[in-house]
Specification:
There is one protein chain. By secondary structure, this protein is an alpha/beta fold. The chain folds into two domains: 45 residues, Up-down Bundle (Monooxygenase), CATH 1.20.1280; 102 residues, no CATH class. 21% of the residues lie in helices and 20% in strands. It has four helices and six strands, in the order ααβαβαββββ. A four-stranded parallel beta sheet has the order 1-2-3-5, with helices on one face. Strands 4-6 form a two-stranded parallel sheet. Strand 2, helix 4 and strand 3 form a beta-alpha-beta unit. It is globular. The N and C termini lie far apart (58 Å). The relative contact order is 0.12. It holds the Pfam family F-box. InterPro entries: F-box-like_dom_sf (IPR036047), F-box_AtFBL13-like (IPR053781), F-box_dom (IPR001810). This is F-box domain-containing protein.
């Protein structure tokens, strides 16, 4: 039986967030069960990359993108391959990312679902510095649009 002090939980939030940003988000999220103090630490990680193919990735993204609360979302990168249900709402994910002042946005949707139309708020987002889109994405730029 270990009776020692929990030193890692005593670290400042900024350092814990930095540590969690070094691991894949699918591994960072489960740290919320470690203690009350850890419940929301993962929500401050500034980069969300969903590049693997876990079952039901769209539910994972829906469940964990909404409570995310970093001041600036540095990266949102999503790769979905194979079968995807019709209820995967990529537009909602992008709107959420724009609301969180996303800087780098990447979507690779090589799935069996219909192509995704990008929400209009993306075309006037002034925080994006890098964007990569591929496969089943419809780019229909409205007027006016502003990419700086």
């Amino acid at each position: 039986r270990y009776e020692g002090e929990d030193r890692i939980s005593a670290l400042p939030d900024d350092l814990l967030v930095r540590i969690l940003s070094l691991v894949p988000i699918k591994d960072a999220v489960p740290t919320m069960i470690l203690s009350k103090r850890w419940r929301s630490i993962w929500t401050m990680v500034p980069a969300l990359e969903y590049l693997e193919k876990p079952p039901c990735i769209w539910r994972f993204i829906d469940g964990y993108l909404q409570p995310h609360k970093a001041d600036v979302l540095e990266i949102l990168a999503v790769r979905i391959r194979g079968h995807c249900p019709v209820d995967a709402d990529v537009g909602k994910w992008i709107v959420t990312a724009v609301d969180r002042r996303v800087r780098e946005l990447g979507f690779m949707l090589s799935w069996s679902a219909e192509p995704t139309r990008l929400p209009t708020c993306l075309y006037t987002c002034n925080t994006i510095v890098s964007m990569g889109l591929s496969h089943r994405i419809l780019v229909d730029v409205p007027s006016p649009a502003c990419f700086l």
